[in-house]
Amino acid sequence: MIFCLMALTGCADSKWVSWLTGEPGDSVLNVPQAVGAPPSQNETGWPNLASVPPKPKDFSTPAFRRTTIRQMNAAKTEAEAIRQRVGTPTETVK
Fold it and tell me: Which of the 8 DSSP states describes residue 17?
């Protein structure tokens, strides 16, 4: 009996085994399938991966970054001093 079941599952061309394998019937398999055409070269629907955009010019200068770092360190030092005056623990709760 088991051999018969194993032999029947290998018969992919048999139509009467579809109830066993779950394969859809011919009415489903033979329906024409609609496939969309790819966009043409002139359409802008898809990005052109071969083109490289120009390099942005609005980067910060090294002097601006140094000034910002100094300001952030000053704010950090001030916050630590306030924390010590108030008596708040320095460890962060996780």
Answer: T
Task: Quote the CA–CA distance of 66 and 60 in Å, as a whole number.
Answer: 10
* 8 Cβ contact list (under 8 Å, min separation 6): 14, 17, 20
The whole model's pTM is what? 0.35
d(CA 9, CA 6) in angstroms, rounded, equals 5
User: What's the first-to-final CA gap in the chain, in angstroms?
Assistant: 63
Q: What percent of the chain has pLDDT over 90?
A: 21
In terms of Cβ atoms closer than 10 Å to its own Cβ (0-12, 13-18, 19+), residue 17 is middle
